C-alpha cells in the first residue's frame, strides 16, 4: 500500500512543479505568516493541493553500545520505551493517533511485527493498527515517509513513526540441515522414524548460522565494501580518522551542552536509569592510528575507530497534517517536504546513496546546495562519508554517473553533522532515520536556518534524502 | 617498453608494449628491462622496486610466440631459454627487494618473471589469472619456471600447473602460495574503475615494497605444521620417486605418447631437484630448444593462431536472441535475453533444470555468486508458444533432424518474427539450402551447427547457402563469438564440413581414440545420433557408409540419445599406436578435408584445421588436416593412399588438390 500511496504522491507533485516553473507559487496562510517571521526571507516549499506535513515531536532512547545496559531486553521493549517517551513528551491522547509504523532491520523472530508488539505495551489504544517496515539503514526513514504518504493521501491525520534495532541479541539459527531434521521430527509418527531422524544428525549439522552484516547479493560485508569505496575515491586513513574524531568531538560537545534534547531517560528493568548515549568517546589521532584495518587486511583503511559501532536503540516521531497539529494545539517543529529514494549498484556503489539522493531531492524541491542551512548525513563509516563528499565534489562523477553537466558540490563542513553523527552517537540500523530528522528540526531551530537536508545510505545499494523546512517561530 | 619513476626510495617500473594489445616478453621488452634494471641497481638511493603493467587487464601474457617460432635450430631456441633464465636469475638475486604487482593475465614467461620477484601482489579480479600454459603449445616453462615453481608451491601443485596449463585465479593462487597478498578490485571513484584499481594496486605495492626494505613486511610466511610436515615428506627420496613415477604414468596415459612436452617437464623438475639448480637450468634450456623445434609444438602453435583467427569477425557486427537448452545457456550468461520455446511442459522443465544445474555447479565451485546465477537465469524465459518472437533479432531452432519438422517450424516462426530477424537452424547434417527452400526470405536463413554438449564444445560451424546475405552471416558470427565459440564459416553441402569428414570414414571404431582423436569420431556419431547420420547418408549425398553402422542403427542403438552406441561395440580391442590404422584414418580425413577446400565448402585451410580439431577431435599434435599435409608431405601421403586405394577403392583416391600439392612440393597451405 505504501508504494501505491507514494505513487499517488508523486503524481500529485506534477502540477505544483509546473506551477513553480511559472513562478506562480501561491502561498498558504501559514506560509505567509512564515515569510514575515523568518529571519532569512527564503521562499517556502508549500505547494497548492499538497498537504503540509509537520513533525510535531521526536524522541529516542539513549543509543547504547550493544551488549551494555540494554543487553537483557527485547527489541519491542526499546521501541516501547521510545513510544512511551513520545506519549509523555507530547501528551497526545492515547487514541488520537491513526496509525503506527516502525522500521527495523534484524528482526526478532517472535516479534516480527515489532510495531504492534511495542504499541500494545506502550499505552496506546489497542484500536490503532501498526505495521513494520524494513529497508536496511533507512528503515525508519521509510516508516516516516510511509506515514507522510498516508497523511498526504488523506487516509490519516496523525501518525507515529519510529525505528528500533537491538544488536545485543540477534537470531542465531540452527543450520539448514538441522532445521530440516527438526521439522521432520515434528511430523514423525513412530518411534522408529524418530530414532532414524535423530540418527541422521551429524556433528556438522550442529554448527549454528550467524547473521552477518553482509550483502546477500554480493556476499561482501559492508565494512569491506566501505573500505573499497574509500580506496576508490582515494580517501586516506588520516582523513577517515580525522572525520571520526570530529564526529566524536562534536557529539561530546552537543551532549555536554544539552543539545541532544531528543534523548529521553529510560529506566531499564533491573538496572539504573539510562539517560545518555554511551558510545561517544573522543580519542586522539595517535591512538586511532594504532588500530589495524578491520575488514581489508592488511592494507585497508577502515578500522573499528572510524566505523559506526553495533548499537541498541529506538526512536519515535509524531507527524501530523499541519491543520490537525494546529487544531490539537501543537506547535510543530518542522515541515517534512520532498523526499526521494534512490538505488544503485550494490557492489561498487553500495554506500553512495547520499550522492545520488541529494541532487535529486534538491531538484524536486527547487533548491540548491546553497539554500540548505543544516546537513545531517548518516555516518556509516568515516570513509563512506568522505567518499560521498568527494563524489559530490567531482565533475567526472557527476557527469558519468549522475547524468549532470557538472558536480553536485559538497556540503560545507560548517553546516555538516554539527552535533555528531552515527559514528559517535551510535547507529541502531532501524532507528537512525528518525534521529536524523529530529536533529535537523532541532538544529534549524537552534541555528535559525530554514532548510535542512537529511541523507543516508543503506544496504542493498539504496539511499534516501529528504528536505525539511523550519516551522515559523 | 619499460619505463620507471621514483616514488621516494621505491622505483616503480612500468611495463607497456605500445605495439601490441598485450605485454609479451619480446626481445625489445627484455632488453629495455635489462637497461632499466641496470640503472635502478646502480642507483644507491633506490631501496626497493615494484613491477607493474600499464596495460589494463594484462601483466605479461607470456613469451613472444613469434620469437620462438622464428628460431631456426634447437640451439637458437635453447639460447632464448638461457637468456630468460639469466635475466630472471638476476631479478631473483636482486640486491633490493622487487614486488610484482599483478593485474590481469600473468601467464607463461610472465609468471616465471613474477615468481622470480621477491614478493607478489595480485588483484582479486576475474581478469587476473596466473598459469604456465606452455604445455598447451607443446613447450615447457623455459625461463627457470620448472626450477622455481616446485619450490614455491610444492611438487603436486607445480606439476598440476605445468602439465595441464591450467589458469589459476587470484584467490586460489594466494592459497597455493603463488602470490603473497591480494588487493580487491575497486569500483568507480574519481576515475573509471579499472584505472583506479591499477593505481590502487600500485599504491599498495609501493607500501609493501617500503615495508620489505625496512623489514616491516616479512618475505616468507610462517609455515603451518601441516605444510612443514608436507615439505619434510616431499624431501624423502622414496616419496619423491613415487610422485615422479605416478605423474609420469599419468602424463603418459593422457598424452598417449603424442605429446612430448609433459615428459620433458617432469624430467626438468626431477633433474633440478636431484642434481641442483645448474643442472636443472641446463636440462630446461636444452629441452626447451628440442620442444620448440618439434613438429608437435609447431602444430599446436598453429592451432593457437588459428583459434584466435576464428574469433575475429570479418563480416561486421551484431544482433541477438535464441532457443535450445545448451544454446540458451551459452546465450544467457553472455547477457542475451533469450526465449526457450519447446513443445511440452516436461521438456521445458528439463531444459530449465539443465541450465540451472550447470550454473549452480559454477556457484558451488565459486566461479560465480548465487546472485550472478539468478541474474543470468532472469535473462531466460521459457514458453510453449511464440509470444515474444515478434521482437526477436535471431531465432535458432534446434528441433529434431527431420526435414518436414524443420520446414514446419520455419514456417511457424516466420509467421511471427519481424522482417530483420534471422532464422538459424541448428542441424548437424540436414542441407540448409533445402531447409531454406521453405522460407519466404532465404537470405535470412543460415545454419548454425553447434556441437554437443554446447556449453563445453567450443566450435561453431556456420553454414551458409548461396542466398544467405553477408549481414546474416555477420550477425550469426558475432552471436557465436559472443557465446564464446570459435567460429568457422562453411558453404552448405551434404554434412557441411565436420559431419561430412566424419561420415567419410567407413571404419571408425575405438581406434580413433587410440590414434589420438581425442573426442573420437565414433563418439561424435553417438552424440549426433546414428539415426541422423544414417538418414543423411540414405538421402544419398555421396557419403559411403558401412554396413556396420546401419546394423547398429537397426538395433535402435541410436547413439547417446538411447544410451548405447558405437562404444559398446568396440570395447576391448586395442589399436594403440597402430601406424596402419593411424594412416588409414588420417588419410581419409585429410583427403575429405582437402576436397572441402577444393570444392569451396571451406574458405581457407585455417578454418579447416580448427574445425577438424574442435569439431571432431582431430589430434592437435599434428595440427589439423592441412597442416598435416604440409608437415607430413603431400607426396608421401599420396603414395600411402595409393596403396589403400588398391585394396579399398575409391574412398582412398586422393583428391585433385592433394595431387597438386604432391606434384609441387613448394605448395604449402601455411606459409
TrEMBL record, chain A:
Entry EC number(s): 2.3.1.155, 2.3.1.16
Record's catalysed reaction(s): hexanoyl-CoA + acetyl-CoA = 3-oxooctanoyl-CoA + CoA; dodecanoyl-CoA + acetyl-CoA = 3-oxotetradecanoyl-CoA + CoA; butanoyl-CoA + acetyl-CoA = 3-oxohexanoyl-CoA + CoA; an acyl-CoA + acetyl-CoA = a 3-oxoacyl-CoA + CoA
Protein name: Trifunctional enzyme subunit beta, mitochondrial
Pathway the protein contributes to: Lipid metabolism; fatty acid beta-oxidation
Lineage summary: Eukaryota, Metazoa, Chordata, Craniata, Vertebrata
Quaternary assembly: Heterotetramer of 2 alpha/HADHA and 2 beta/HADHB subunits; forms the mitochondrial trifunctional enzyme. Also purified as higher order heterooligomers including a 4 alpha/HADHA and 4 beta/HADHB heterooligomer which physiological significance remains unclear. The mitochondrial trifunctional enzyme interacts with MTLN. Interacts with RSAD2/viperin.
Occurrences of domain Thiolase N-terminal (ranges): 53-323
Keyword Signal included in the entry's annotation: no
Entry keywords, A to Z: Acetylation, Acyltransferase, Endoplasmic reticulum, Fatty acid metabolism, Lipid metabolism, Membrane, Mitochondrion, Mitochondrion inner membrane, Mitochondrion outer membrane, Transferase, Transit peptide
A single GO cellular-component term on record: mitochondrial inner membrane
GO MF terms held by the record: acetyl-CoA C-acyltransferase activity; acetyl-CoA C-myristoyltransferase activity
Domain Thiolase C-terminal, chain residue ranges per copy: 330-469
GO biological process per UniProt: fatty acid beta-oxidation
PANTHER family tied to this protein: ACETYL-COA C-ACYLTRANSFERASE, TRIFUNCTIONAL ENZYME SUBUNIT BETA, MITOCHONDRIAL
Similarity comment text for this entry: Belongs to the thiolase-like superfamily. Thiolase family.
Taxonomic source organism: Labrus bergylta
Domain of life, per lineage: Eukaryota
Subcellular location per the Swiss-Prot or TrEMBL entry: Endoplasmic reticulum; Mitochondrion inner membrane; Mitochondrion outer membrane
Main location group: endoplasmic reticulum
Described function: Mitochondrial trifunctional enzyme catalyzes the last three of the four reactions of the mitochondrial beta-oxidation pathway. The mitochondrial beta-oxidation pathway is the major energy-producing process in tissues and is performed through four consecutive reactions breaking down fatty acids into acetyl-CoA. Among the enzymes involved in this pathway, the trifunctional enzyme exhibits specificity for long-chain fatty acids.
Automatic annotation (TrEMBL), chain B:
Domain 3-hydroxyacyl-CoA dehydrogenase NAD binding: 324-493
Keyword Lipid metabolism: yes
Alphabetical list of InterPro entries matching this protein: 3-OHacyl-CoA_DH_NAD-bd, 6-PGluconate_DH-like_C_sf, ClpP/crotonase-like_dom_sf, Enoyl-CoA_hyd/isom_CS, Enoyl-CoA_hydra/iso, FA_oxidation_alpha_subunit, NAD(P)-bd_dom_sf
GO biological process, one term: fatty acid beta-oxidation
Source domain of life: Eukaryota
Pfam assignment, any one: ECH_1
Catalytic activity: (3S)-hydroxyhexadecanoyl-CoA + NAD(+) = 3-oxohexadecanoyl-CoA + NADH + H(+); (3S)-hydroxydecanoyl-CoA + NAD(+) = 3-oxodecanoyl-CoA + NADH + H(+); (3S)-hydroxyhexadecanoyl-CoA = (2E)-hexadecenoyl-CoA + H2O
Pathway: Lipid metabolism; fatty acid beta-oxidation
Keywords assigned: Fatty acid metabolism, Lipid metabolism, Lyase, Multifunctional enzyme, NAD, Oxidoreductase
Transmembrane intervals: none
GO MF annotations in UniProt: enoyl-CoA hydratase activity; long-chain (3S)-3-hydroxyacyl-CoA dehydrogenase (NAD+) activity; NAD+ binding
Main EC class the enzyme belongs to: lyase
GO cellular component terms, semicolon-separated: mitochondrial fatty acid beta-oxidation multienzyme complex
EC number: 4.2.1.17
Similarity annotation: In the central section; belongs to the 3-hydroxyacyl-CoA dehydrogenase family.
Protein name: enoyl-CoA hydratase
Naturally occurring in which organism (per UniProt): Labrus bergylta
Amino acid at each position: 500500500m505504501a508504494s501505491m500511496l507514494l505513487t499517488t504522491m508523486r503524481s500529485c507533485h506534477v502540477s505544483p512543479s509546473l506551477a513553480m516553473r511559472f513562478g506562480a507559487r501561491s502561498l498558504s496562510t501559514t506560509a505567509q505568516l512564515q515569510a514575515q517571521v523568518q529571519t532569512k526571507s527564503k521562499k517556502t516549499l508549500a505547494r497548492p493541493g499538497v498537504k503540509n506535513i509537520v513533525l510535531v515531536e521526536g524522541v529516542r532512547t539513549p543509543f547504547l553500545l550493544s551488549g551494555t545496559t540494554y543487553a537483557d531486553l527485547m527489541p519491542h521493549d526499546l521501541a516501547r520505551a521510545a513510544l512511551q517517551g513520545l506519549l509523555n513528551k507530547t501528551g497526545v491522547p492515547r487514541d488520537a493517533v491513526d496509525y503506527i509504523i516502525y522500521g527495523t532491520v534484524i528482526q526478532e523472530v517472535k516479534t516480527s511485527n515489532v510495531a504492534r508488539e511495542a504499541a500494545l505495551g506502550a499505552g496506546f489504544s489497542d484500536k490503532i493498527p501498526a505495521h513494520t517496515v524494513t529497508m536496511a539503514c533507512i528503515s525508519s526513514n521509510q516508516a516516516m515517509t510511509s506515514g507522510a504518504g498516508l497523511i498526504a493521501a488523506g487516509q490519516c491525520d496523525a501518525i507515529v513513526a519510529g525505528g528500533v534495532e537491538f544488536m545485543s541479541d540477534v537470531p542465531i539459527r540452527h543450520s539448514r540441515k538441522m532445521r530440516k531434521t527438526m521439522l521432520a521430527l515434528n511430523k514423525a509418527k513412530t518411534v522408529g522414524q524418530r530414532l532414524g531422524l535423530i540418527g541422521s544428525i551429524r556433528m556438522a549439522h550442529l554448527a549454528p548460522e550467524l547473521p552477518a552484516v553482509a550483502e546477500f547479493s554480493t556476499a561482501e560485508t559492508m565494512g569491506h565494501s566501505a573500505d573499497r569505496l574509500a580506496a576508490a575515491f582515494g580517501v586516506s586513513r588520516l582523513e577517515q580518522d580525522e572525520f571520526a574524531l570530529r564526529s566524536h568531538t562534536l557529539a561530546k560537545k552537543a551532549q555536554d551542552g544539552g543539545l541532544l534534547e531528543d534523548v529521553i531517560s529510560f529506566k531499564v528493568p533491573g538496572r539504573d536509569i539510562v539517560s545518555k548515549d554511551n558510545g561517544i568517546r573522543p580519542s586522539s589521532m595517535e591512538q586511532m592510528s594504532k588500530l589495524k584495518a578491520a575488514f581489508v587486511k592488511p592494507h585497508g583503511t577502515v578500522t573499528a575507530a572510524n566505523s559506526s559501532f553495533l548499537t541498541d536503540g529506538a526512536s519515535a516521531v509524531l507527524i501530523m497534517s499541519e491543520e490537525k497539529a494546529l487544531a490539537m494545539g501543537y506547535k510543530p517543529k518542522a515541515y517534512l517536504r520532498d523526499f526521494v529514494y534512490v538505488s544503485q549498484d550494490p557492489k561498487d556503489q553500495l554506500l553512495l546513496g547520499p550522492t545520488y539522493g541529494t541532487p535529486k531531492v534538491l531538484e524536486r524541491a527547487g533548491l540548491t546546495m546553497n539554500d540548505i542551512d543544516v546537513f545531517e548525513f548518516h555516518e556509516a563509516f568515516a570513509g563512506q562519508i568522505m567518499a560521498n563528499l568527494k563524489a559530490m565534489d567531482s565533475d567526472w562523477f557527476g557527469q558519468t554517473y549522475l547524468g549532470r553537466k557538472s558536480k553536485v558540490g559538497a556540503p560545507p563542513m560548517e553546516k555538516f553533522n554539527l552535533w555528531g553523527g552515527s559514528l559517535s552517537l551510535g547507529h541502531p540500523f532501524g532507528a537512525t532515520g528518525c534521529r536524523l530528522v529530529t536533529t535537523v528540526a532541532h538544529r534549524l531551530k537552534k541555528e535559525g536556518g530554514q532548510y535542512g537536508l537529511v541523507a543516508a545510505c543503506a544496504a542493498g545499494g539504496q539511499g534516501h534524502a529528504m528536505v525539511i523546512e523550519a516551522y515559523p517561530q | 617498453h619499460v619505463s620507471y619513476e621514483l616514488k621516494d626510495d621505491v622505483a616503480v617500473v612500468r611495463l607497456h608494449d605500445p605495439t601490441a594489445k598485450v605485454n609479451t616478453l619480446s626481445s625489445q621488452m627484455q632488453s629495455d628491462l635489462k637497461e632499466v634494471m641496470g640503472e635502478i641497481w646502480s642507483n644507491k638511493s633506490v631501496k626497493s622496486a615494484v613491477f607493474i603493467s600499464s596495460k589494463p587487464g594484462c601483466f605479461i601474457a607470456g613469451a613472444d610466440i613469434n620469437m620462438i617460432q622464428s628460431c631456426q635450430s634447437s640451439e637458437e631456441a635453447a639460447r632464448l631459454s638461457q637468456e630468460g633464465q639469466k635475466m630472471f636469475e638476476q631479478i631473483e638475486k636482486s640486491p633490493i627487494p622487487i614486488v610484482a604487482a599483478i593485474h590481469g593475465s600473468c601467464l607463461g614467461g610472465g609468471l616465471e618473471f613474477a615468481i622470480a620477484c621477491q614478493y607478489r601482489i595480485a588483484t582479486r579480479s576475474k581478469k587476473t589469472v596466473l598459469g604456465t600454459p606452455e604445455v598447451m603449445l607443446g613447450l615447457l616453462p623455459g625461463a627457470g619456471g620448472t626450477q622455481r615453481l616446485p619450490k614455491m608451491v610444492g611438487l603436486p601443485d607445480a606439476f598440476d600447473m605445468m602439465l595441464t596449463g591450467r589458469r589459476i585465479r587470484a584467490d586460489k593462487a594466494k592459497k597455493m602460495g603463488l602470490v603473497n597478498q591480494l588487493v580487491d578490485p575497486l569500483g568507480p571513484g574519481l576515475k573509471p574503475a579499472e584505472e583506479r584499481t591499477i593505481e590502487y594496486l600500485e599504491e599498495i605495492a609501493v607500501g609493501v615494497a617500503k615495508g620489505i626494505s625496512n623489514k616491516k613486511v616479512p618475505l616468507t610466511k610462517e609455515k603451518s605444521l601441516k605444510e612443514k610436515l608436507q615439505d619434510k615428506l616431499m624431501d624423502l627420496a622414496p616419496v619423491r620417486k613415487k610422485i615422479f613415477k605416478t605423474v609420469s604414468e599419468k602424463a603418459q596415459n593422457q598424452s598417449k605418447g603424442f605429446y612430448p612436452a609433459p615428459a620433458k617437464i617432469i624430467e626438468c623438475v626431477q633433474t633440478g631437484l636431484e642434481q641442483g639448480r645448474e643442472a636443472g637450468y641446463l636440462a630446461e634450456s636444452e629441452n626447451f630448444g628440442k620442444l620448440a623445434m618439434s613438429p608437435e609444438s609447431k602444430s599446436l602453435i598453429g592451432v593457437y593462431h588459428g583459434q584466435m583467427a576464428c574469433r575475429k569477425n570479418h563480416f561486421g557486427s551484431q544482433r541477438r536472441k535464441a532457443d535450445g537448452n545448451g544454446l540458451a545457456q551459452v546465450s544467457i550468461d553472455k547477457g542475451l535475453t533469450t526465449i526457450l520455446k519447446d513443445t511440452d511442459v516436461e521438456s521445458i522443465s528439463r531444459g530449465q533444470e539443465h541450465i540451472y544445474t550447470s550454473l549452480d555447479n559454477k556457484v558451488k565451485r565459486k566461479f560465480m555468486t548465487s546472485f550472478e546465477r539468478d541474474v543470468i537465469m532472469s535473462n531466460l524465459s521459457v514458453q510453449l508458444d511464440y509470444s515474444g518472437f515478434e521482437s526477436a533479432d535471431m531465432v535458432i531452432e534446434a528441433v529434431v533432424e527431420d526435414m518436414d519438422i524443420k520446414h514446419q517450424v520455419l514456417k511457424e516462426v516466420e509467421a511471427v518474427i519481424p522482417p530483420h530477424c534471422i532464422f538459424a537452424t541448428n542441424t548437424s547434417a540436414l542441407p540448409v539450402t533445402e531447409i531454406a527452400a521453405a522460407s519466404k526470405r532465404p537470405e535470412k536463413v543460415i545454419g548454425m551447427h553447434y556441437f554437443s554438449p554446447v556449453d563445453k564444445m567450443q566450435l561453431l560451424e556456420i553454414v551458409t547457402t548461396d542466398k544467405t546475405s553477408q549481414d546474416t552471416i555477420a550477425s550469426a558470427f558475432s552471436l557465436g563469438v559472443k557465446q564464446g565459440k570459435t567460429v568457422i564459416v562453411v558453404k552448405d553441402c551434404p554434412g557441411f564440413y565436420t559431419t561430412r569428414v566424419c561420415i567419410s570414414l567407413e571404419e571408425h571404431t575405438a581406434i580413433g581414440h587410440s590414434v589420438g582423436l581425442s573426442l573420437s569420431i565414433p563418439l561424435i556419431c553417438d552424440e549426433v545420433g546414428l539415426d541422423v547420420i544414417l538418414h543423411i547418408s540414405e538421402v544419398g549425398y555421396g557419403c559411403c557408409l558401412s554396413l556396420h553402422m546401419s546394423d547398429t542403427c537397426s538395433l535402435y542403438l541410436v547413439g547417446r540419445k538411447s544410451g548405447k552406441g558405437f562404444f559398446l561395440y568396440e570395447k576391448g580391442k586395442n589399436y594403440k599406436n597402430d601406424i596402419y590404422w593411424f594412416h588409414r584414418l588420417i588419410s581419409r580425413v585429410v583427403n575429405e578435408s582437402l576436397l572441402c577446400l577444393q570444392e569451396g565448402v571451406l574458405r581457407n585451410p585455417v578454418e579447416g584445421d580448427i574445425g577438424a580439431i574442435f569439431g571432431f577431435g582431430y589430434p592437435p599434435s599434428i595440427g589439423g588436416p592441412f597442416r598435416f599435409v604440409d608437415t607430413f608431405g603431400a607426396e608421401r601421403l599420396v603414395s600411402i593412399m595409393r596403396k589403400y586405394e588398391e585394396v579399398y577403392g575409391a574412398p582412398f583416391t586422393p583428391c585433385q588438390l592433394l595431387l597438386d600439392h604432391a606434384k609441387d612440393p613448394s605448395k604449402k597451405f601455411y606459409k
